[in-house]
Structure formats: C-alpha cells, structure tokens
Amino acid sequence: MAPPQHDPRRPYKRPAISDQQRRRELALQAQSARRADAQARARTLASSLLATPTHPPAATHDYEEEDEDHEHEEESHHTVADVAAAASKLRGSDARRWFARQIMLPEWMVDAPPHLARDWHVFARPSGKRCLVVSSNGITISRARNGSILHRFPSALPNGSKREISGPASSYSILDCIFHEPDETYYIIDMICWRGYSLYDCTAEFRFFWVNSKLMETSAGDPPSTYHRYRFSAVPIYECTLEGLQAAYSGSTPYVKDGLLFYNKHAHYQAGITPLTLVWKDEACSQYVIDTDSKGQIPSEQHVVLELQEDGKLVTSDDPPVVFGSLDNEFIQKSNLRPGNLLRFAVRDENVKLVDGKMQISELHFVGKPNRARAFADSHSKALFQYAARHVPLRIEDLVASVQSNNMELESTDVEMQD
C-alpha cells in the first residue's frame, strides 16, 4: 500500500497502529503518584534471590490469581523475611510467576514514540539469558526469569565474595543483567540496588549513570579469577539522536546483538511489563525477529502463547490482561488443561483486525503447550509486533524519520522564539 501524501520537506512517518503512546503517558503519571517503600522492596527481592528452596510449598491457584494490588496490600502486612521465605519455597509455575514479576520487561515497539531524541536512551541488547544478580554475604547468585538459579559464584561486586566484604556483610547489590554465554560475561542493562541503596524510584538516566560510575569503583570488569568467576560489563548506552541510534544499530559490540532496547529517561524501575521501555528488532540486528515453532522454523501462520484462566478465557501477560479468546469446558477437560496453563495457538490473517490500537482475534487454533520453562504468556504488544512484522513492519527508516521529525520540530520552535 502506498504511503499517504505528505510534505516532501519532512520525513515520512509511519502512521501509528496502537495505543502505546497513550499508555506511556498514563505510566509516567502513575509512577509519579506511586511512592512505595523502595528500600523494603529491594530487601525483599535480595533476600528472595539469595534464598535456597528447601521444601516444596502447598501450592494453590489462589496465589497465582492474586492481582498486583492485592499483592502490594499483603506485602505491607508481612516482614521482608516472611515474603522472602515464602518466595523461596515456591515451585513450578508459582516460582516462575513470582520471579518473572520482579524484572522490568519492555513492551515491543509497535509505533515510534514522539520525542525519541529528547526523552529516550537506546542501546543494543546483548543476546543471552535475562537474569537478576545479587551479591551479599560473600556470595553472588544469578537467577533467570523463571526463578531458577543460573550461577552461584564469587564476584568482585560489593560483598560478592569472601574477599570483597566491605561494610556490613549483609549489604546487598542487585543488578539486572543478560548473561552472554560466548564470552561468559554478565552485561548490565540496569541497576536496582547498590550497597543497600535502592534505585527503584530513580530515573533511568540516573540508574545508567550509576551503572557506569559504580562499576568503575570495583574490579568486577576485570578478567575472571579465583575470587571473580565471571566478568561484568556495562553496555554502551546512547542518547537516541540520529548518531546514537546509528551507533546502537550499526556499531560494533563485543557481544551478539538481539535487537535494540529503548528506555524512557524518566522511567523508574517498574517490575512487570511497561511501555516506558521498548524492544525493537529487524533482521539486521537480530537473528530472531519473527517467532519460530518448536522445530526452529518460521510457521506460515503467526503463533501466540496465551494463559488459560479459571473461566476459560485466554489472556495475555499484560496488567490488566487482554482477552484474545476462550475455550469451552468440554475441550478443557478432554485436553486435560488447567487454569494457569500456557497454551500455543495459531492465528490466521483473516481472523485479525485492529480496533482502537488493540489487536482483536476472532478465532484461535490450538497448537499445543510451549516449553515448560516458560514463565508467562505473550504480551499484547508482542502479538501486535509479530503481526506487524509480517505485514507492515516498523523499519529502522521509520525510527530515523521519527528522530528527524523531532529535530525539525525543535528547529521550528527555535525560529518562532527568535521571531
């Protein structure tokens, strides 16, 4: 389809197909109004990451179905030790859900945000396992998104080994990392806590500054040694100007790239999916743009992974979840399915339409269950990104055009002020 007519002096901007910008504005308003006890949240997370499960819990579906507001109410009535102990005993889907909720997860960039150059950072995402790393009491532990322990090792992070004890031994640091297996390096993409100081309510711009400055105060970036099993490295982060976008997209990195990550400069560290961080991919900066099936092949039809609820509805991992369909009781019983199960479906093009920035699916075709290690369903933005990638992809040229348009708006404002 040919693009609509536009002013030839201005770069063509791909029309928006989602409500992502509206939700981004709401997210910024919500974080300024929300002032939780960041220090207590950090202590709870650190204790839970360090705890080693000892005996299985009496898992119930009631825990799985609690909404986030109820969880926050419960946390206010329990001590850090209570919450950490409960989290350490979780198993299976309960554990995967709890730990997955602690990480800030990006939405998929469906439309280019306005003011990219002014309000956003960008960097090349390392390919590898997303994890949280905590150092305390002379040991360092990393946990994957599903809660499983990735590594337990000595490190040069504060209190990360018996050799690195400084200040109270129980003082902890928590880093949001990606473990890049080819060079056995933890690439730090964010910082949640440093030496017991919580950064939950700090802006991304400040957190990125601390990642670089605090890492330089340690020898965590040195090659591995007896008291430092894995190297830590900060990723190069750029202002999302034309030069910064080009550097992140085309510049060389010591790691394999898996798309670009965009962080709103004003975003606090918010556990769960947020439109204030975005992931974007194309074939030039990622091996994995369109999802593959269990055999590693790109299916002819789009696939989506959804969660089965008690009432048979099939929903995304968003908060609140987006309903894409439902299953009848006969099929659920015949297939031996239970609430909380993650299920894979095929989606035919003729069954999809976009209404008010939302993806609506009139019919889903059951394919099977995804990998058991998977923590949660697809988000709405991922399903929409996958659909767009097959039909009207957001290209690097669209991102460049958005930045150029921002620049022209700024120049126009400057001229008006001079007049």
Can you put this structure into words, describing what you see?
This protein is an alpha+beta fold. 30% of the residues lie in helices and 25% in strands. It contains twelve helices and 19 strands. Strands 3, 4, 5, 6, 7, 8 and 9 form a seven-stranded mixed sheet that branches. The chain has a five-stranded mixed sheet with strand order 1-12-11-2-10. Strand 14 (313-315) and strand 15 form a beta hairpin. Helix 2 packs parallel to helix 5. It is globular, with a radius of gyration of 22 Å. The two termini are 41 Å apart.
Q: Could you give a short description of this structure?
A:
The protein is α+β, with helices and mostly antiparallel strands and 419 residues long. Helices cover 30% and strands 25% of the residues.
Helix content range = 25-40%
Oligomeric state of this protein: single chain
Strand content: 25-35%
- Provide the structure class: alpha+beta
Low-pLDDT ranges: 1-10, 54-80
Number of beta-strand segments: 19
Largest sheet: 7 strands, mixed
Terminal CA distance reads 41 Å
What is the rounded Rg?
22 Å
Given the structure, what is the number of helices?
Answer: 12
On the 0-100 scale, what is the average pLDDT?
Answer: 84
Net shape: globular
Question: Topology, please?
Answer:
Blueprint (H helix, E strand, L loop, with lengths): L19 H14 L4 H13 L10 H5 L2 H10 L2 H9 L3 H9 L3 E5 L7 H4 E7 L2 E8 L2 E6 L4 E5 L19 E8 L4 E10 L2 E2 L5 H13 L14 E4 L3 E2 L2 H9 L6 E8 L7 E9 L21 E7 L4 E3 L7 E4 L2 H6 L7 E6 L4 E4 L2 E4 L3 E4 L11 H12 L4 H23 L1
Helix pairs in contact: 2-5
